[in-house]
Amino acid sequence: MGQVSEASAGSGETAAGSGSMNTLDAWVHAATRELGLDPGVVETKQVLDVARDVAHQVIRPGAPVTTYLMGVAVGRGADPADVAERLQALALRWETEDA
To answer: 13-54, pLDDT tens digit by residue?
Structure first.
């Protein structure tokens, strides 16, 4: 999902009309380029889903911290899908387990 065409990167529009997602795609593309990473390996939806679940089930400031931890784990070789699944499961059971 992390890729965006050069033509659409600055337009603010996508085929579906979701300018905010196009802006996000453009940002991810620029950020990965800045860091020398392949934008094709960024699972933006997966990261956003984890952030949403943490923000809603645990605490809002936990969302960026958790996505950072997700990146650290993946950077150390963990499978991105497994990391996302485990963190989402933890967030979704947080209230019953740790409240």
So the answer is: 334 445 777 999 999 999 999 999 999 889 999 999 999 999
92 and 48 in a common domain: yes
Six token digits for residue 28 = 């991810």
How many Cβ atoms from other residues are within 10 Å of residue 39's Cβ?
Answer: 17
Task: Please state, in angstroms and rounded to a whole number, the distance separating the CA atoms of residues 21 and 8.
Answer: 11
Same structural domain for residues 80 and 53? yes
Q: Are 83 and 49 in contact (CB under 8 A)?
A: no
The residue whose two tokens read 């979701």 is 18
This prediction has a pTM of 0.74
Q: Which two tokens stand for residue 88?
A: 């989402």
| Residue 34: count of CB within 10 angstroms of its CB | 8
Question: Taking every pair of C-alpha atoms in the chain, what is the biggest distance, in angstroms?
Answer: 48
